[in-house]
Amino acid sequence: MRSKNAILLRTLLKSSSLANIRKYSSEPKKRSKMLGTIIAYVFLMLLLGAYCVFGCVGLYAFGLQEVIPLTCATTIAGVAFFFTLLKSNGYLLNFREYDMLMALPFSSKDVATCKFLYMYLKSLPWYLVISVSMMIGYGVISAASPLMYPWWLLLSLMLPIIPMLIASFFGFLIAKISAGREKKQTIQIILTLIFVFFCFSFQYIIEALLKGRSREEITGTGFEISTAVRTYYFPAGWFSDAVTKLEEAPLMALVEGVLFLGVSALLFVGILTFVGKYYRQINSALKSHATKRNFRMSKQKHRSVINAIVFKEYRRLVSSTNYFVNVAMGQVMAVVGSIAIGIVGIDRAIDVVLKDAPVPHEIVYPLIPLIVYFFIGMMPSTACSPSLEGKNFWILQSLPIKKKTIYRGKIRFQLYLSIPFMVLAVLCMSLSARVGVVNTLLYLIMGI
Protein backbone atom coordinates (compact mmCIF):
# COMPACT_ATOMS: atom_id res chain seq x y z
CA MET A 1 0.00 0.00 0.00
CA ARG A 2 1.35 3.42 -0.91
CA SER A 3 2.24 5.79 1.92
CA LYS A 4 -0.59 8.26 1.18
CA ASN A 5 -3.08 5.40 1.33
CA ALA A 6 -1.63 4.37 4.67
CA ILE A 7 -2.11 7.94 5.91
CA LEU A 8 -5.74 7.92 4.77
CA LEU A 9 -6.43 4.56 6.40
CA ARG A 10 -4.74 5.61 9.64
CA THR A 11 -6.79 8.82 9.70
CA LEU A 12 -10.05 6.91 9.20
CA LEU A 13 -9.18 4.55 12.06
CA LYS A 14 -8.13 7.33 14.43
CA SER A 15 -11.25 9.39 13.76
CA SER A 16 -13.54 6.51 14.78
CA SER A 17 -11.42 4.91 17.52
CA LEU A 18 -13.31 4.62 20.80
CA ALA A 19 -10.08 5.06 22.75
CA ASN A 20 -9.23 8.25 20.83
CA ILE A 21 -12.71 9.68 21.28
CA ARG A 22 -12.50 9.03 25.01
CA LYS A 23 -8.99 10.48 25.21
CA TYR A 24 -9.53 13.69 23.26
CA SER A 25 -13.23 14.47 23.70
CA SER A 26 -14.02 17.49 25.85
CA GLU A 27 -17.52 16.23 26.74
CA PRO A 28 -17.57 14.16 29.96
CA LYS A 29 -20.82 12.48 28.90
CA LYS A 30 -19.30 11.29 25.61
CA ARG A 31 -16.14 10.09 27.36
CA SER A 32 -18.11 8.04 29.88
CA LYS A 33 -20.23 6.65 27.05
CA MET A 34 -17.09 5.52 25.17
CA LEU A 35 -15.76 3.86 28.33
CA GLY A 36 -19.03 2.00 28.76
CA THR A 37 -18.92 0.90 25.12
CA ILE A 38 -15.36 -0.40 25.48
CA ILE A 39 -16.29 -2.38 28.61
CA ALA A 40 -19.34 -3.83 26.85
CA TYR A 41 -17.21 -4.86 23.85
CA VAL A 42 -14.67 -6.59 26.09
CA PHE A 43 -17.43 -8.43 27.95
CA LEU A 44 -19.06 -9.59 24.70
CA MET A 45 -15.71 -10.73 23.33
CA LEU A 46 -15.07 -12.79 26.45
CA LEU A 47 -18.50 -14.42 26.09
CA LEU A 48 -17.86 -15.12 22.41
CA GLY A 49 -14.46 -16.63 23.17
CA ALA A 50 -15.90 -18.85 25.89
CA TYR A 51 -18.68 -20.00 23.55
CA CYS A 52 -16.12 -20.96 20.90
CA VAL A 53 -14.00 -22.89 23.42
CA PHE A 54 -17.05 -24.82 24.64
CA GLY A 55 -17.93 -25.50 21.00
CA CYS A 56 -14.51 -27.09 20.54
CA VAL A 57 -15.10 -29.24 23.64
CA GLY A 58 -18.44 -30.34 22.21
CA LEU A 59 -16.88 -31.34 18.89
CA TYR A 60 -14.17 -33.24 20.75
CA ALA A 61 -16.82 -35.12 22.74
CA PHE A 62 -18.21 -36.51 19.46
CA GLY A 63 -14.79 -37.31 18.02
CA LEU A 64 -14.84 -34.37 15.61
CA GLN A 65 -11.73 -32.54 16.81
CA GLU A 66 -10.25 -32.62 13.29
CA VAL A 67 -13.23 -30.56 12.11
CA ILE A 68 -12.47 -27.65 14.50
CA PRO A 69 -10.28 -25.66 12.02
CA LEU A 70 -12.89 -26.14 9.29
CA THR A 71 -15.63 -25.01 11.70
CA CYS A 72 -13.56 -21.96 12.60
CA ALA A 73 -13.07 -20.97 8.95
CA THR A 74 -16.74 -21.56 8.10
CA THR A 75 -18.01 -19.61 11.11
CA ILE A 76 -15.82 -16.59 10.37
CA ALA A 77 -16.73 -16.75 6.68
CA GLY A 78 -20.47 -16.81 7.40
CA VAL A 79 -20.36 -13.98 9.93
CA ALA A 80 -18.05 -11.87 7.75
CA PHE A 81 -20.18 -12.36 4.62
CA PHE A 82 -23.48 -11.43 6.23
CA PHE A 83 -22.32 -8.42 8.23
CA THR A 84 -20.24 -7.07 5.34
CA LEU A 85 -23.29 -7.32 3.08
CA LEU A 86 -25.19 -5.20 5.59
CA LYS A 87 -22.36 -2.77 6.28
CA SER A 88 -21.26 -2.19 2.68
CA ASN A 89 -23.80 0.63 2.45
CA GLY A 90 -22.32 3.10 4.91
CA TYR A 91 -18.76 1.82 5.04
CA LEU A 92 -17.82 1.13 1.42
CA LEU A 93 -20.66 2.98 -0.33
CA ASN A 94 -22.76 6.04 0.45
CA PHE A 95 -20.69 7.07 3.49
CA ARG A 96 -20.79 10.52 5.10
CA GLU A 97 -17.33 11.78 4.23
CA TYR A 98 -17.59 10.78 0.56
CA ASP A 99 -17.44 14.34 -0.84
CA MET A 100 -14.46 15.24 1.33
CA LEU A 101 -12.48 12.09 0.45
CA MET A 102 -13.14 12.30 -3.28
CA ALA A 103 -11.90 15.91 -3.26
CA LEU A 104 -8.51 14.71 -2.00
CA PRO A 105 -5.77 13.59 -4.45
CA PHE A 106 -6.77 9.92 -4.34
CA SER A 107 -8.05 7.74 -7.15
CA SER A 108 -11.41 5.98 -6.85
CA LYS A 109 -9.62 2.66 -6.45
CA ASP A 110 -7.48 4.07 -3.61
CA VAL A 111 -10.54 5.32 -1.72
CA ALA A 112 -12.41 2.03 -2.26
CA THR A 113 -9.38 0.04 -1.08
CA CYS A 114 -8.90 2.17 2.04
CA LYS A 115 -12.61 2.02 2.91
CA PHE A 116 -12.60 -1.78 2.51
CA LEU A 117 -9.50 -2.12 4.70
CA TYR A 118 -11.10 0.23 7.22
CA MET A 119 -14.19 -2.01 7.33
CA TYR A 120 -11.93 -5.07 7.64
CA LEU A 121 -9.82 -3.68 10.50
CA LYS A 122 -12.89 -2.48 12.41
CA SER A 123 -14.32 -6.02 12.35
CA LEU A 124 -11.03 -7.92 12.71
CA PRO A 125 -10.98 -8.06 16.57
CA TRP A 126 -14.26 -10.01 16.57
CA TYR A 127 -12.98 -12.48 13.98
CA LEU A 128 -9.73 -12.91 15.90
CA VAL A 129 -11.65 -13.70 19.09
CA ILE A 130 -13.35 -16.58 17.28
CA SER A 131 -10.13 -17.75 15.65
CA VAL A 132 -7.86 -17.50 18.70
CA SER A 133 -10.41 -19.20 20.97
CA MET A 134 -10.83 -22.13 18.59
CA MET A 135 -7.07 -22.25 17.99
CA ILE A 136 -6.48 -22.66 21.73
CA GLY A 137 -9.23 -25.28 21.97
CA TYR A 138 -7.89 -27.24 19.02
CA GLY A 139 -4.26 -26.92 20.16
CA VAL A 140 -4.98 -28.24 23.65
CA ILE A 141 -7.28 -31.04 22.47
CA SER A 142 -5.02 -32.32 19.69
CA ALA A 143 -1.68 -31.54 21.43
CA ALA A 144 -0.63 -29.65 18.33
CA SER A 145 2.92 -28.59 17.51
CA PRO A 146 4.02 -25.11 18.68
CA LEU A 147 4.47 -24.17 15.01
CA MET A 148 0.73 -24.54 14.50
CA TYR A 149 -0.10 -21.44 16.57
CA PRO A 150 1.76 -18.75 14.55
CA TRP A 151 0.74 -20.48 11.30
CA TRP A 152 -2.92 -20.49 12.38
CA LEU A 153 -2.73 -16.82 13.42
CA LEU A 154 -1.17 -15.79 10.11
CA LEU A 155 -3.81 -17.59 8.05
CA SER A 156 -6.66 -16.44 10.29
CA LEU A 157 -5.85 -12.83 9.42
CA MET A 158 -6.94 -13.68 5.87
CA LEU A 159 -10.00 -15.76 6.78
CA PRO A 160 -12.49 -12.84 6.58
CA ILE A 161 -11.00 -11.40 3.38
CA ILE A 162 -12.63 -13.69 0.78
CA PRO A 163 -16.18 -13.61 2.26
CA MET A 164 -15.90 -9.86 2.80
CA LEU A 165 -14.81 -9.35 -0.80
CA ILE A 166 -17.66 -11.50 -2.12
CA ALA A 167 -20.18 -9.69 0.11
CA SER A 168 -18.81 -6.29 -0.96
CA PHE A 169 -19.10 -7.31 -4.59
CA PHE A 170 -22.73 -8.39 -4.12
CA GLY A 171 -23.44 -5.21 -2.17
CA PHE A 172 -21.88 -3.22 -4.98
CA LEU A 173 -24.03 -5.01 -7.59
CA ILE A 174 -27.17 -4.42 -5.52
CA ALA A 175 -26.27 -0.75 -5.19
CA LYS A 176 -25.58 -0.49 -8.93
CA ILE A 177 -28.93 -2.07 -9.85
CA SER A 178 -30.96 -0.13 -7.29
CA ALA A 179 -29.09 3.19 -7.33
CA GLY A 180 -31.52 6.06 -6.87
CA ARG A 181 -34.31 3.71 -5.79
CA GLU A 182 -35.45 2.19 -2.51
CA LYS A 183 -34.82 -1.42 -3.55
CA LYS A 184 -31.48 -1.68 -1.76
CA GLN A 185 -33.03 -0.91 1.61
CA THR A 186 -35.71 -3.52 1.00
CA ILE A 187 -33.09 -6.13 0.10
CA GLN A 188 -31.10 -5.33 3.23
CA ILE A 189 -34.20 -5.65 5.41
CA ILE A 190 -35.09 -9.02 3.87
CA LEU A 191 -31.54 -10.34 4.34
CA THR A 192 -31.50 -9.18 7.95
CA LEU A 193 -34.86 -10.83 8.64
CA ILE A 194 -33.58 -14.10 7.15
CA PHE A 195 -30.47 -13.95 9.35
CA VAL A 196 -32.47 -13.20 12.52
CA PHE A 197 -34.92 -16.02 11.78
CA PHE A 198 -31.99 -18.37 11.24
CA CYS A 199 -30.49 -17.37 14.61
CA PHE A 200 -33.80 -17.93 16.39
CA SER A 201 -34.33 -21.32 14.76
CA PHE A 202 -30.68 -22.51 14.93
CA GLN A 203 -31.24 -24.42 18.17
CA TYR A 204 -34.20 -26.30 16.73
CA ILE A 205 -32.29 -27.06 13.51
CA ILE A 206 -29.46 -28.64 15.51
CA GLU A 207 -31.92 -30.58 17.66
CA ALA A 208 -33.70 -31.88 14.57
CA LEU A 209 -30.38 -33.09 13.14
CA LEU A 210 -29.23 -34.80 16.34
CA LYS A 211 -32.47 -36.04 17.87
CA GLY A 212 -32.71 -39.81 18.19
CA ARG A 213 -29.25 -40.46 16.77
CA SER A 214 -26.43 -42.41 18.34
CA ARG A 215 -22.98 -40.97 18.95
CA GLU A 216 -21.58 -42.79 15.92
CA GLU A 217 -24.35 -41.47 13.67
CA ILE A 218 -23.75 -37.90 14.88
CA THR A 219 -20.02 -38.27 14.20
CA GLY A 220 -20.74 -39.57 10.71
CA THR A 221 -23.13 -36.68 10.02
CA GLY A 222 -20.46 -34.23 11.20
CA PHE A 223 -17.92 -35.62 8.74
CA GLU A 224 -20.51 -35.55 5.94
CA ILE A 225 -21.22 -31.87 6.63
CA SER A 226 -17.49 -31.09 6.71
CA THR A 227 -17.05 -32.81 3.33
CA ALA A 228 -19.88 -30.74 1.87
CA VAL A 229 -18.30 -27.54 3.23
CA ARG A 230 -14.97 -28.42 1.64
CA THR A 231 -16.73 -29.04 -1.68
CA TYR A 232 -18.68 -25.79 -1.84
CA TYR A 233 -16.32 -23.44 0.03
CA PHE A 234 -12.85 -24.72 -0.70
CA PRO A 235 -10.91 -21.86 1.02
CA ALA A 236 -12.13 -23.33 4.33
CA GLY A 237 -10.68 -26.68 3.25
CA TRP A 238 -7.36 -25.04 2.38
CA PHE A 239 -7.19 -23.44 5.81
CA SER A 240 -8.09 -26.70 7.55
CA ASP A 241 -5.52 -28.74 5.63
CA ALA A 242 -2.82 -26.12 6.17
CA VAL A 243 -3.36 -26.33 9.94
CA THR A 244 -4.11 -30.00 10.53
CA LYS A 245 -1.44 -31.46 8.21
CA LEU A 246 1.41 -29.30 9.43
CA GLU A 247 3.14 -32.22 11.19
CA GLU A 248 2.14 -35.13 8.94
CA ALA A 249 2.75 -33.44 5.57
CA PRO A 250 4.45 -30.05 6.11
CA LEU A 251 5.03 -29.46 2.40
CA MET A 252 1.35 -30.02 1.58
CA ALA A 253 0.31 -27.80 4.51
CA LEU A 254 2.60 -25.05 3.23
CA VAL A 255 1.22 -25.34 -0.31
CA GLU A 256 -2.38 -25.21 0.95
CA GLY A 257 -1.59 -22.16 3.11
CA VAL A 258 0.20 -20.31 0.31
CA LEU A 259 -2.66 -21.14 -2.06
CA PHE A 260 -5.15 -19.71 0.48
CA LEU A 261 -3.11 -16.52 0.90
CA GLY A 262 -2.53 -16.15 -2.84
CA VAL A 263 -6.18 -16.56 -3.84
CA SER A 264 -7.20 -14.06 -1.14
CA ALA A 265 -4.70 -11.51 -2.45
CA LEU A 266 -5.77 -12.00 -6.10
CA LEU A 267 -9.45 -11.61 -5.25
CA PHE A 268 -8.64 -8.51 -3.22
CA VAL A 269 -6.91 -6.84 -6.16
CA GLY A 270 -9.41 -8.00 -8.78
CA ILE A 271 -12.66 -7.12 -7.02
CA LEU A 272 -11.48 -3.74 -5.72
CA THR A 273 -10.16 -2.85 -9.17
CA PHE A 274 -13.61 -3.60 -10.61
CA VAL A 275 -15.38 -1.70 -7.83
CA GLY A 276 -13.02 1.26 -8.18
CA LYS A 277 -13.93 1.55 -11.88
CA TYR A 278 -17.59 2.36 -11.07
CA TYR A 279 -17.05 3.82 -7.59
CA ARG A 280 -17.83 7.46 -8.36
CA GLN A 281 -20.81 6.54 -10.51
CA ILE A 282 -22.48 4.36 -7.87
CA ASN A 283 -21.88 6.74 -4.96
CA SER A 284 -23.20 9.67 -6.95
CA ALA A 285 -26.33 7.72 -7.84
CA LEU A 286 -26.87 6.62 -4.24
CA LYS A 287 -26.77 10.23 -3.07
CA SER A 288 -29.34 11.30 -5.66
CA HIS A 289 -32.99 10.41 -6.06
CA ALA A 290 -34.57 8.87 -9.12
CA THR A 291 -37.71 10.38 -10.65
CA LYS A 292 -40.10 8.91 -13.14
CA ARG A 293 -40.06 10.32 -16.64
CA ASN A 294 -43.85 10.28 -16.80
CA PHE A 295 -44.17 12.17 -13.51
CA ARG A 296 -47.21 14.41 -13.28
CA MET A 297 -48.11 16.95 -10.69
CA SER A 298 -51.24 15.81 -8.87
CA LYS A 299 -53.34 17.15 -6.08
CA GLN A 300 -51.47 17.12 -2.79
CA LYS A 301 -52.93 14.79 -0.19
CA HIS A 302 -54.37 16.39 2.88
CA ARG A 303 -53.70 14.71 6.22
CA SER A 304 -54.39 15.62 9.78
CA VAL A 305 -51.38 16.55 11.91
CA ILE A 306 -51.49 13.22 13.75
CA ASN A 307 -51.71 11.18 10.54
CA ALA A 308 -48.84 13.22 9.08
CA ILE A 309 -46.73 12.21 12.08
CA VAL A 310 -47.82 8.59 11.56
CA PHE A 311 -46.73 8.73 7.91
CA LYS A 312 -43.41 10.30 8.95
CA GLU A 313 -42.79 7.41 11.37
CA TYR A 314 -43.64 4.91 8.62
CA ARG A 315 -41.13 6.50 6.23
CA ARG A 316 -38.45 6.30 8.90
CA LEU A 317 -39.28 2.64 9.54
CA VAL A 318 -38.89 1.54 5.90
CA SER A 319 -35.80 3.70 5.31
CA SER A 320 -33.68 2.28 8.12
CA THR A 321 -32.73 -1.39 8.35
CA ASN A 322 -31.68 -1.15 12.00
CA TYR A 323 -34.89 0.62 13.02
CA PHE A 324 -37.06 -1.85 11.10
CA VAL A 325 -35.36 -4.89 12.61
CA ASN A 326 -35.54 -3.54 16.17
CA VAL A 327 -39.11 -2.25 15.98
CA ALA A 328 -40.93 -4.48 13.47
CA MET A 329 -39.06 -7.76 13.88
CA GLY A 330 -41.51 -8.99 16.50
CA GLN A 331 -44.50 -8.31 14.29
CA VAL A 332 -42.94 -10.23 11.40
CA MET A 333 -42.05 -13.13 13.70
CA ALA A 334 -45.60 -13.17 15.12
CA VAL A 335 -47.09 -13.53 11.63
CA VAL A 336 -44.54 -16.07 10.39
CA GLY A 337 -44.82 -18.09 13.60
CA SER A 338 -48.62 -18.08 13.60
CA ILE A 339 -48.74 -19.15 9.94
CA ALA A 340 -46.24 -21.93 10.67
CA ILE A 341 -48.37 -23.05 13.64
CA GLY A 342 -51.42 -23.03 11.39
CA ILE A 343 -49.59 -25.37 8.99
CA VAL A 344 -47.93 -27.82 11.41
CA GLY A 345 -50.53 -27.51 14.18
CA ILE A 346 -50.25 -25.86 17.58
CA ASP A 347 -49.93 -29.21 19.35
CA ARG A 348 -46.80 -30.06 17.37
CA ALA A 349 -45.37 -26.57 18.04
CA ILE A 350 -45.97 -27.00 21.79
CA ASP A 351 -44.18 -30.36 21.73
CA VAL A 352 -41.17 -28.82 19.97
CA VAL A 353 -40.92 -25.88 22.38
CA LEU A 354 -41.52 -27.96 25.52
CA LYS A 355 -39.31 -30.80 24.15
CA ASP A 356 -42.12 -33.37 24.40
CA ALA A 357 -42.66 -32.70 28.11
CA PRO A 358 -45.83 -34.35 29.48
CA VAL A 359 -47.77 -31.10 29.75
CA PRO A 360 -51.47 -31.01 28.74
CA HIS A 361 -51.75 -28.77 25.71
CA GLU A 362 -55.00 -27.24 26.97
CA ILE A 363 -52.99 -25.50 29.71
CA VAL A 364 -51.06 -23.55 27.04
CA TYR A 365 -54.08 -22.37 25.03
CA PRO A 366 -55.01 -19.51 27.41
CA LEU A 367 -51.45 -18.22 26.96
CA ILE A 368 -52.05 -17.42 23.27
CA PRO A 369 -52.44 -13.64 23.88
CA LEU A 370 -49.26 -13.68 25.99
CA ILE A 371 -47.34 -15.61 23.34
CA VAL A 372 -48.42 -13.16 20.64
CA TYR A 373 -47.59 -10.16 22.80
CA PHE A 374 -44.17 -11.66 23.53
CA PHE A 375 -43.43 -10.99 19.84
CA ILE A 376 -45.27 -7.75 19.09
CA GLY A 377 -44.19 -6.25 22.41
CA MET A 378 -40.47 -6.83 21.90
CA MET A 379 -39.75 -3.19 21.11
CA PRO A 380 -42.65 -0.72 20.84
CA SER A 381 -41.73 2.21 18.61
CA THR A 382 -43.00 4.58 21.29
CA ALA A 383 -40.07 3.55 23.51
CA CYS A 384 -37.36 4.71 21.13
CA SER A 385 -38.78 6.95 18.40
CA PRO A 386 -38.69 10.22 20.45
CA SER A 387 -34.94 9.85 21.04
CA LEU A 388 -34.40 8.88 17.39
CA GLU A 389 -35.39 12.38 16.31
CA GLY A 390 -31.77 13.21 17.10
CA LYS A 391 -30.50 16.17 15.13
CA ASN A 392 -34.00 16.80 13.73
CA PHE A 393 -35.50 17.30 17.17
CA TRP A 394 -35.26 21.08 16.79
CA ILE A 395 -37.64 20.85 13.82
CA LEU A 396 -40.33 19.32 16.02
CA GLN A 397 -39.69 21.91 18.68
CA SER A 398 -40.05 24.78 16.20
CA LEU A 399 -43.32 23.49 14.69
CA PRO A 400 -46.62 24.84 16.07
CA ILE A 401 -47.51 21.41 17.42
CA LYS A 402 -48.10 20.48 21.04
CA LYS A 403 -46.00 17.72 22.52
CA LYS A 404 -49.17 15.82 23.31
CA THR A 405 -50.08 15.80 19.62
CA ILE A 406 -46.61 14.51 18.66
CA TYR A 407 -46.85 11.63 21.11
CA ARG A 408 -50.39 10.84 20.05
CA GLY A 409 -49.10 10.46 16.49
CA LYS A 410 -46.29 8.16 17.64
CA ILE A 411 -48.72 6.07 19.70
CA ARG A 412 -51.12 5.78 16.79
CA PHE A 413 -48.31 4.59 14.53
CA GLN A 414 -47.46 1.87 17.06
CA LEU A 415 -51.12 0.79 17.11
CA TYR A 416 -51.29 0.71 13.30
CA LEU A 417 -48.11 -1.37 13.30
CA SER A 418 -49.07 -3.86 16.02
CA ILE A 419 -52.84 -4.44 16.02
CA PRO A 420 -53.19 -5.95 12.49
CA PHE A 421 -50.31 -8.35 13.14
CA MET A 422 -51.70 -9.21 16.57
CA VAL A 423 -55.17 -9.95 15.19
CA LEU A 424 -53.80 -12.19 12.44
CA ALA A 425 -51.52 -14.09 14.83
CA VAL A 426 -54.23 -14.63 17.46
CA LEU A 427 -56.73 -15.82 14.84
CA CYS A 428 -54.25 -18.29 13.32
CA MET A 429 -53.32 -19.75 16.70
CA SER A 430 -56.91 -19.86 17.92
CA LEU A 431 -58.09 -21.65 14.79
CA SER A 432 -55.21 -24.12 15.04
CA ALA A 433 -56.07 -24.80 18.70
CA ARG A 434 -59.79 -24.95 17.88
CA VAL A 435 -60.55 -22.38 20.57
CA GLY A 436 -64.18 -21.34 20.92
CA VAL A 437 -65.59 -18.09 19.55
CA VAL A 438 -65.97 -16.49 22.97
CA ASN A 439 -62.40 -17.26 24.02
CA THR A 440 -61.09 -16.07 20.66
CA LEU A 441 -62.86 -12.73 21.12
CA LEU A 442 -61.46 -12.45 24.63
CA TYR A 443 -57.97 -13.18 23.30
CA LEU A 444 -58.39 -10.40 20.71
CA ILE A 445 -59.60 -7.95 23.34
CA MET A 446 -56.64 -8.82 25.60
CA GLY A 447 -54.25 -8.37 22.68
CA ILE A 448 -55.67 -4.95 21.81
Write structural notes for this entry.
This protein is mainly alpha-helical and 448 residues long. The protein has 21 helices and no strands. The chain is globular. The chain starts with a helix and ends with a helix. 28% of the residues are buried. The mean pLDDT is 80.
Key terms:
globular; 448 residues; 21 helices; 77% helix; mainly alpha
Low-confidence stretches: none
N-to-C order of helices and strands: HHHHHHHHHHHHHHHHHHHHH
Helical amount: over 70%
Number of helices: 21
Radius of gyration: 26 Å
- What sort of overall outline do the alpha carbons produce when their principal axes are compared? globular
Quaternary form = single chain
- How would a textbook summarize the main sheet? none
Strand content: under 5%
Briefly note the structural class of the backbone: mainly alpha
What is the element layout, followed by pairings?
Blueprint: H1 3-16, H2 18-24, H3 28-61, H4 68-91, H5 98-102, H6 108-142, H7 148-156, H8 161-178, H9 183-210, H10 215-232, H11 234-244, H12 250-277, H13 279-286, H14 305-319, H15 321-344, H16 346-353, H17 368-376, H18 381-384, H19 393-398, H20 403-433, H21 437-447
Helix pairs in contact: 1-6, 2-3, 3-6, 4-6, 4-8, 4-11, 6-7, 6-12, 7-11, 8-12, 9-15, 10-11, 11-12, 14-15, 14-20, 15-17, 15-20, 17-20, 17-21, 20-21
Summarize this structure briefly.
The chain is an all-alpha fold and about 450 residues long. It has 21 helices and no strands.
